[in-house]
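Quick one, probably user error.
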């Protein structure tokens, strides 16, 4: 099947979704913690967080899988 890996048998969109979720959740929590600890006014740069999550999802979908 196209888009399937031989080792895990999961489609590439699964890896893209996982990469997006990890980047968005980790980056969002990290930005919120930094804003809380530093006591600086201003919001979290949500547009850059979304852009980074999309880039991470694209790279994780297009990168070759590891072989064990």
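Nope, works fine. Designed sequence:
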């Amino acid at each position: 099947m196209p888009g399937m890996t031989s080792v895990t048998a999961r489609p590439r969109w699964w890896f893209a979704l996982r990469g997006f979720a990890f980047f968005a959740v980790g980056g969002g929590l990290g930005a919120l913690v930094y804003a809380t600890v530093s006591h600086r006014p201003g919001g979290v740069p949500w547009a850059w967080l979304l852009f980074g999550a999309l880039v991470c999802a694209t790279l994780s979908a297009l990168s070759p899988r590891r072989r064990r």
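The two ends are 20 Å apart (CA to CA).
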